Structure formats: C-alpha cells, structure tokens
Amino acid sequence: MHTLRLSHTQPCTERITTFCFEGKSLPDWSAGAHVTFLTQAGPRHYSLIRWPGDQSDAYHVAVQKEESGAGGSKAMHSLNVGDTIKTTAPKNDFVLVDQGKPILLLAGGIGITPMISMATQLLQDERPFALHYSGRSASSMAYREELAQAFGDKLTLHHDDETPLDLPALMAAHADHALYICGPQGMIAAARNAAEAAGIAAEHIHVELFTNTVVTTEDTAFEVEIASTGQVVTVAADQSIVQALEAAGIDVMSDCQRGDCGICQTKVLSGIPDHRDVVLSDAERAANDVMQICVSRARSERLVLDIATAKAPRRVTQPSAPQTSQADGIRALFQGHQVHRDVYISQDIYRLEMKHLFANTWVFVGHDSQTPNAGDYYTTQIGNQPVIMVRHSDDQIHVLLNRCPHKGTKIAIDRSGNTGKFFRCPYHAWSFKTDGCLLAIPLKKGYEETGFEDNPNVKGMTAVGAVKNYRGFIFARLNTDGISFEEYFGDSLSTLDNMVDRAPEGRLEVAGPPLRYMHQCNWKMLVENQTDTCHPMVAHESSAGTAVKIYEQMGNPEPRPPAMQIIAPFMSPYEFFEGMGIRTWPNGHGHTGVNMSIHSNYDAIPGYFDAMCQAYGEDRAKAILDDNRHNTIYFPAIMAKGPLQQIRNFIPLAANKTLVESWVYRLVGAPDQLVAMSSMYNRMINAPTSIVGHDDLEMYERAQEGLEADSSDWVNLQRLFEEDEDYSQEAVENGTTERQMRNQFDAWVKFMTADMETAQ
Amino acid sequence: MITRDDVIDFVYAEARMLDEGRYDEWLSQWLENGIYWMPLDYKQTDPINATSLMYEDMFMLRLRVERLNGARTFSQKPKSRCHHVIQRPFVDVFEPETGTFQTNTSMHYVETRLDDQILLALTATHELQAVEGKLRIARKTVELLNSDAAFGNIQLLP
Question: Which end of chain A is more exposed for a tag (fewer CB within 10 A), N or C?
Fold first, then answer.
C-alpha cells in the first residue's frame, strides 16, 4: 500500500484530466501496468502513463469523468492538489511481450493511456510498431498533439465523424502483427473478431479493459449459445446461466453458486460477460474469454460458450533408460522350451513388467455395469498402477490414474461409489471433472505468474492411453501409443462374445463383489495354471477324488449333489484333458476346451434353453450353448470362463505377491439359477475357503520358494514342444500341450520389449 | 426340556470340537439338510445369487472333513490348527415348545500352519433345532468382520 500526493493536474479534454502523483520510493513499473486507487467510491484501476524522455518516478494517470458511473471518476476529479490517496503497488496484467512480431497498438478513447507507455517502451527498444487511436470525435480524444509529436508517423488517428476505424481493413493489413487492444468492451470484442478473421492467432491478441466493473442494478435477459451444438438458451432476468442450461437439459458443472469456487468456469467464445465472481484475476476478467456461469451474466445480447472441451492429460510412453542391451536381456530369458526362473522371482523383472508389459498390452479393468450412472466409479489397479474407472457425463467410461497431480493423494479410496459431476481431492480441494480435466483450484490467484499455466504436470488427473468398452468389458492400455485393441485380441474375443451371447438379452451385469484371494507367488504362475491340464487330477485329488469316493459310498444318488457337478470333473483322467484340446491365438491368448470341457456336462436349467431359442432361434441358441470352452487366457492377466460367466483377474502386486479377484456376471434375461450356478462354482473353486483353491495356492507358494534353489536357472515348458512353433498363427493342439504357456512367454517378450531401445 | 444353559453350552461345545479336531463328532451335530454359510459381502442377504465364501450342504462339509484326513491333501501337510475364543452367546430365540433356538456369538478365530497365523473376528449365528431331545444345527452363519478383505488360505472352520 502506498500513499500518493497529487502534485498537479492538467485538463486534456472536456472530460479527461491528467493527474500527476508523487510519493516516497514509489516502485518501478513496466508498460501496461495499472495502479488501483482506493477512492471514496471504491477501488478504481488506472493505467500508468510514461512519455518518451520522462525520467521522473511520479505516477501519471488520466481519468475520464463518467457522469453515469458509480462515482470513482468523480471522486478522482474532486481531488485537489496536495491531497493524498492510498493505492496498491503497480500491477501489470497487460504485459508487452516479445513474440518476435511487429506490434499493433489499438486504443479506443481513454484506452490510450497504457498504449502511450507501450509506444514509449517500443520506441526506446527500437522495435517496429504502429499505434492506432480511435475516438468519437477529435475533440474527445486526449493527447492528440502530444502523441503526434512523440510518435510521428507511427500514429494513426481515427474518429467517427471524419476517418472512422475500419477494423477488418486494419487487421488484414497487420495480420502478421501481435495485437494489443485497450478500449471500450464493444470495441475490444469487434477488434478481436476482426483480428481472428484476419488470421491473427489468439496468443497474439492481448487485451485490457480500462472501464471499471459496472454495478448493474437490474438484470436483464440474454441468450447463451452452446458452441458445440448451436443450441441457444435464453437466460431470464431472474435466472443464472447454470439454472437456464440445466432447465434446458444441458449438463453443466457447478458447486458454490456464489462465484468463488471456480468449478463452473466456462470458456467464452464470443460475447461479453458481465463478471460477478470473485475468482478471476483482473487480467482474466479483462480478457473475457472465461466466466463463472453460476453468477456472471452478459453485457452483450448473446454469449457463445464452450461447454467442456478440454482433454485430460494422457499417460505417455515412458522411454527406458538408454540401455541398449535391455531388450536383448529380456529376450534371453525365454528359450522356447524353457524360461528363466528370474521371471518369477526377480523384483527387477517385476518392475520392468509393470513399466513395459502392463503398459503396452490391453489390461482388464472392470465391467461397465459396475458404474451404471454418470459419476459412478470403481477403483482398481492396472498392474501396479492405481486407477479409477468412472462413467463421465457423456456416458463414456474413462479410466484415470488415481493420483492427484498436486501432492499425489489418491483421489478415491472406496472400492466403488458415486462422485457426482467431479472428483475433489480431500487434501487441498483441487477438483477434476470425471474425464480427468482440472476443474478448479482454491486460491488459484496464487499460481499467477508462477509458470503454473505452462506446467504440463498439473493439467488434471492423467487418463490412461486408451480405453475400450468391449460388450461391457472395460480394457485399458496405459501407453498412448501401441497395438490396437482389435489387433491385440483378434479372434480370441470369441470367448467374451460367447459369454455375452449366452444372455438372452445379449448383455451381462456384475453379480456382487469379487472373491479376493491373496497369493504369495508370482502372477504368471496363476496365469499358466489356467491352461495347465496335467495338474487337476494330481493336485486336486484330495478334493475331487474324495468327492467321487463319498458319492460312491452314498450309492450314487440322483440328483447329484452340486459339488459332484462342479468338483468331480477335476478328477477326469489325462485322456479326457488330451481330448479337450487347446487353442492358441497370437499375442499370448489361448484357451482350453476346444472340443468339450469339464463344463459340458452340467444339468440343464429349466426355462433357459427356451429363453435362448426365443432370443436367437433354435440353431443359433444351440451353437452358442454348445461352445463349452474351459479357461480362456486374455494375456497378460485375466482368465474368462464363458459357460460360467466368470472373470478371474490376476493383479500383480510384487514378484511374489498376486491378488486374485474372481467375478461372476448375471446373464440378463436368463433364470436366476444360472447366476446361482456361477456363484456356486466361484465359491467352491476360487474362494480362499475353497478346498480346491487351497491345493493350487499350496503349489504356487511351494514353487515360489522352491525356485530359489540353485539347481538350475530354468523352468521347463517342454510338454509337446516343437522347434518351429509359430505363435503368430492360431493353432489347435492336444489338450495337454504346454504350448499356451510358451505362447504367453512369446507375447511376454514381445510386449516387454515393444518400447525398449533395441541393440543391433 | 432344553434349557437356556443347554443352548449356550452347545455353542461352546461345538467350538471345542473344531479346536480339538473331533470332526466326525462335529458332523453328527448337524441336521441332514443343515447349511454352513459364510457371506462374502458385509451384510450380505442373498447367499445363492451372489458369491459367498462358503454356502455348504452336508455333502460339502463331509467332503471337507474327509479331505482333511486324506494322504494327498497337500495343503494340509503339515496340518493347520485352530483356536476359538468365544464370548457368551446371546440367546435370541428360545422356544422350547417348538424346539427352536437361535444364538448370536462373537468370536475371535485363530488359524495357524507353519510360520503363518491369521486372526479373524466374527459373529456366528447358530440356528438350532431340538431332535429327540438333542440340539442339532440347522444353519450356522459366520459373518467375518473383514469378509471383504483379501485373504490367503482359510483352511479350517471358524
């Protein structure tokens, strides 16, 4: 705060007077700066004037007496020489920057004041510029003679009664200039439009409003046009823009309704807002390209608004350190018939998997029925990356990394919920739209002139590189660049198709939360086990074999106990599994149960086949239900069971730690017994309380510990191995082959190294 | 006539059978159509059409017990041990005339094998029926306090 003393005044025109103030150790300022005078009528901003050759540190401003104004200009005019007045330090929201272009200064009326200082600066710097000054009449324009004397042929005067300003012609003639405009709002808007029409880019157009905010006593109606659709909505005198838009069914974001939170901030493409908020800085206010639509209104008859066009940042491919041997090192771990034990036990390999494999591949996230309504979210992980799956207001599912760009706080921690129209970080209240875009930051003014606007790391919650909703199943690829969803999965999508087609209404809904089963082993052991057809009759003898024994002791009663349908087939002999067959697809996908499977012999459920025939016709219904694939691996880390509508998601938490989530889905339109069957299978086989699961986990954990033994570096994958196996081609083989495990490691190498620098 | 003490003592005795591994005796405490239910979701109401941790009939419970005795039950080499600490049961239903009883019991259940030990806090609901003067389990519902947490193996019976 400074105290200025009025040292002298100089009338310029009938209404405009120059005021010269002096004070103690006044701060220096740059061209374009203004000072806020605390007049009796409230704060008023006036641009500082500096003429060529002026070395004094006095502050010169020009004030035009506004008879209809709120009294600020009258208060200034009533000052007498010797009076003192408080002011702020000079502030510059209208900085003259060097954009490597000649400068066009355009002033209207009293807006000439900052232009005088700018022209003085440009003259001193010997930079090319032109000054155009426009007013209603020659006699109303201050400093005509002084300007001509100071700036000579760089000055062009326009006045409406003799040589009116032709904005299109002016802009066309200066299309290669950077433009600075100060003047009445209508003139600024017209000049901006003309400049844009002439091809001057927005970043080369700089504006300052010199009028102070007008206090309107009575609001009037105006129109708002939605730029993207052309829809026009009338905002009644007693209505806010938010209220009018919502009444018209247009989804907008808002919170405080007082103009202080910044959440409803909206881009203004044309028209002049009447700012009523307390969020915007003076420069933002003057620029008129954003507004708070909960309180602010319009000065022009129509505003054209840009509702929600910003894009959240995307996770970018992270280049590896320039270690040219890294890809070769990865390749050396897989030899076709065997794989190095480090892929299971090395935490370094695990980290590389998270950075490369899980970023280059399409990884399962969830099902869209988990988030049926806008704002519904579900939190999970893609590899080691915490993510939020959320349904945005446009009904699309977005997948965002679950981290506030500010301090790193996880934005959502519930496994599921509804966030409304935006996420709000619980730490410092940064808020984000449900597509990740930064919405608002409290006290945003504190980031002005800090370089914040240009910092790419604070633009919002980062979205994953790509998201695909395939018939309700949500997959994401972390990296922005990479293989397309269709190419990655190819014909393997037939299992998901079959799973969904089994619903008479052709869609699934999630049936409750998943089983969550923690495994102290590497995630790939679980993935490999899904197509390992030589383990059930061995590892599961204690459950499946005992079930068969008890059933025989009971005298084979009918109907069979449910456990006999579900658990007993695990005891099938090797020949059965050989006959099941295994199919492998490119990119690591594959399934057991080509010809039939342990799921083929379930009891029919009354009413289901009829419902299917009604939906699809008998032939198609039979074709769908005759496909009884066992386990389908969608590389890297899920298994889908079509006949039972299950997904098991193997989430890698560390080299030796994997969380298995086992989901079941309801076939929409099918009898409840179907989901009861899937739920029963899930608890009997996949639960931490399952007598089948117990023995699987025992095997994995023994392997995780056993692999530490130094007998060899290699884990064998040689069953039915052929030297010339081509994993880029679909193949069907004997059901006991380990080809699918080899296929997975072929894909593992491919997608581990896809974004690594390669040695020659 | 069944007394309140009989009902409470039954719940204690059942836990002791499990802790001492007297499984054949434990199985004999059940009605032939008895059900052991352990929900997956906190406050789950539907055991059938959504996944539970357990929803087991007598065939499954017999299979569980028989498996524990098997020679090739790898996850039980070595065997797990368990331990119940139970609070005095509330007797919520006491109808000696119809032989229908229900208790609500808070428990801490500990299970251990090799170097690992887990502790589960739970509430058990016993629905009991008197048959020829003896109490039998019609339904036992075990609600784990953290049923929605990720577990490793839970191999014996809380």
Answer: C
Task: Give the Cα separation of A196 and A190 in Å (integer).
Answer: 10
Is B53 at the interface with chain A, CB within 8 A?
yes
For residue range A81-126, what is the model confidence (pLDDT) as tens digits?
999 898 888 888 788 888 889 999 999 888 899 999 999 999 999 9
Q: Are residues A457 and A491 in the same domain?
A: no
Chain B environment of A689 (Cβ under 8 Å): 38, 53-54, 154
Closest approach of B97 to chain A, Cα-based (Å) = 34
* Position A179 in a domain: yes
B25 touches chain A (CB under 8 A): no
Is B125 an interface residue toward A (CB < 8 Å)? Answer: no
Tell if the CB–CB gap between B40 and A515 is shorter than 8 Å: yes
Residues A408 and A447 in one domain: yes
For the segment A580-604, the average pLDDT, to the nearest whole number, is 91
> Number of folded domains in chain A?
4
Quick check: B107 contacting A, CB < 8 Å? no
For chains A and B, CB pairs below 8 A equal 120
Quote the pLDDT of residue A615: 96
Q: Check if the beta carbon of residue B98 is closer than 8 Å to that of residue B81.
A: no
Last residue of a domain, which of A209, A231, A256?
A209
Q: Which domain holds residue A228?
A: 222-306
Residues in A closer than 8 angstroms to B59, CB to CB, are 550, 561-564
With a CB cutoff of 8 Å and minimum separation 6, the contacts of A342 are: A333, A348, A349, A713
Mean pLDDT rounded to a whole number for chain A: 90
Question: A449-487: per-residue pLDDT in tens?
Answer: 999 989 999 999 999 999 999 999 999 999 999 999 999
Residue among A197, A214, A32, A21 nearest A113 (CA): A32
- Residue that wins the pLDDT comparison between A55 and A333: A333
CA distance A136 to A134: 7
Given an 8 Å threshold on Cβ–Cβ distance, is B66 in contact with A549?
Answer: yes
- Pick from B109, B105, B119, B121: which is nearest to B85 by CA? B109
Label each residue of A355-412 as H, E or C: HHHHHHCCEEEEEHHHCCCCCEEEEEEECCEEEEEEECCCCCEEEEECCCCCCCCCCC
Q: How far B5 CA sits from the closest chain A CA (Å)?
A: 32
Residues of B in contact with A697 (CB under 8 A): 75, 152-153
By the CB < 8 Å criterion, does B41 face chain A?
yes
Residue numbers in B near A680 (CB within 8 A): 55
List the domain boundaries for chain B. 4-144
Mean pLDDT of all residues in A491-504: 97
Which CATH architecture is the domain B4-144 placed in?
Roll (3.10)
Report the complex ipTM: 0.96
Q: Do B152 and A562 touch (CB under 8 A)?
A: no
Q: In chain A, which residues have their Cβ closer than 8 Å to the Cβ of B72?
A: 541-542, 545
Closest partner residue to B63 (CB to CB) among A516, A550, A695 is: A550
Quote the CA–CA distance of A412 and A337 in Å, as a whole number: 44
- A509 vs A68, which has greater pLDDT? A509
Whether residue A672 and residue B38 make contact (CB cut-off 8 A), yes or no, is no
Mean pLDDT within A721-735: 94
- pLDDT reported for residue A308: 66
CB contact under 8 A, A543 and B152: no
Q: How far is A267 from chain B (nearest CA, A)?
A: 45
With beta carbons less than 8 A apart as the criterion, state whether A110 and A116 touch. Answer: no
Please name the helix (run of DSSP H) or strand (run of DSSP E) that holds residue A1, with its range, or none: none
- pLDDT for position A311: 67
Contact B49 A672 (CB under 8 A): yes
Report the pLDDT value the prediction gives residue A757, as an integer from 0 to 100: 65
| Average pLDDT score over residue span B42-49 | 94
List the single range of A207-216, A346-355, A569-578 with lowest mean pLDDT. Answer: A207-216
Instruction: Please tell me the predicted confidence (pLDDT) of residue A318.
Output: 55
Which residues, in sequence order, are bridge partners of residue A28? none
Last residue of a domain, one of A408, A435, A470: A470
Flag whether pLDDT at A212 surpasses 50.
no
